[in-house]
Design brief:
mainly beta, five-stranded mixed β-sheet
Length: about 220
C-alpha cells in the first residue's frame, strides 16, 4: 500500500504508512445528545453499543486520497470528521469522511464501515498549532444542493479525550489514523454519484483544509 502524503504549513510534507486505522463512534460532547442519537439509531434497527464512545477498526488500505471514490450499491453516504494522524513526527490534524454503507449498518456496523473507501484530504496541520483554539475549529460537509453538515469541534470530545481513546489501540511507537466522530446532519445526502466537499476551518488564521470527492456507485453485479 503506498503511503499517505500530506502537505504541511510552510511547504513541508508528511508521509504516513499507518499500521492501524480507527473510526470513533458516539463521540459527542453532550451526553444527552449522544443518548438521543443512540435511540434514533435503534429506531432504524441499528443495535445500541454496550458503552460509549466506541472504537471501530478500519482496514488501512481503505484510506483514500483520490477524488473519485468507487462504492458498491446505492446506500452509502459520507460523514465529515476531523482526523488525527499519529506519526513519529507527532500528531497532525486533517479532515476526512467516514463513508459508510447505511443498509449494511443496520446489521453489522463494523462491516458497514469497511466496505467503503475512507476519503482523506491531502493537507494537514500540526496539532500543536491549533490546540489553543481547538473548540473553535469548524467542520463542514456539503453537496451541490447545499450544506449538509456544519458545526465546530466543540461538539465532539476534547482533544485529550480523543487521544486517550486512540491509545486504546494505537501504541506510542505506532503510526495510525483516528476518524474522530461526526456532527449531526442538517439534510439528507443526495444519492451517488454526487460531489462531496469536506472542510476543516480555522477562523482565527483564516486557513482551511478542503477535500472534494465524487462517489461512483458500482452495481452489485454486471
Amino acid at each position: 500500500m503506498p503511503p499517505l502524503l500530506f502537505s504541511l504549513p510552510g511547504g513541508e510534507r508528511l508521509e504516513l504508512s499507518p499500521e492501524l486505522a480507527l473510526a470513533a463512534g458516539f463521540t459527542g460532547r453532550d451526553p444527552e445528545a449522544v443518548t438521543a442519537h443512540i435511540a434514533e439509531l435503534e429506531a432504524q434497527g441499528i443495535p445500541p453499543p454496550d458503552a460509549v464512545p466506541v472504537l471501530f477498526p478500519l482496514l488501512p488500505l481503505l484510506l483514500f486520497q483520490a477524488t473519485r471514490v468507487p462504492v458498491i450499491g446505492p446506500h452509502t453516504t459520507p460523514e465529515v470528521e476531523p482526523v488525527l494522524l499519529f506519526s513519529e513526527r507527532g500528531v497532525f490534524l486533517t479532515v476526512g469522511s467516514d463513508h459508510t454503507d447505511r443498509a449494511l449498518e443496520a446489521s453489522h456496523v463494523t462491516l458497514s464501515k469497511n466496505v467503503c473507501p475512507k476519503p482523506l484530504a491531502t493537507e494537514a496541520w500540526p496539532v500543536e498549532t491549533v490546540l489553543d483554539r481547538w473548540d473553535r475549529l469548524g467542520l463542514e460537509a456539503s453537496s451541490p444542493q447545499g450544506m449538509v453538515q456544519r458545526g465546530t469541534l466543540a461538539e465532539l470530545l476534547p482533544y485529550p479525550a480523543l487521544v486517550r481513546l486512540a491509545r486504546r489501540a494505537i501504541a506510542e511507537d505506532q503510526s495510525g489514523v483516528l476518524f474522530c466522530g461526526t456532527i449531526p446532519a442538517r439534510a439528507p445526502w443526495p444519492p451517488a454519484p454526487s460531489p462531496v466537499t469536506l472542510r476543516l476551518t480555522d477562523p482565527e488564521s483564516g486557513r482551511a483544509i478542503e477535500h472534494r470527492y465524487t462517489t461512483e456507485a458500482l452495481p452489485e453485479r454486471y
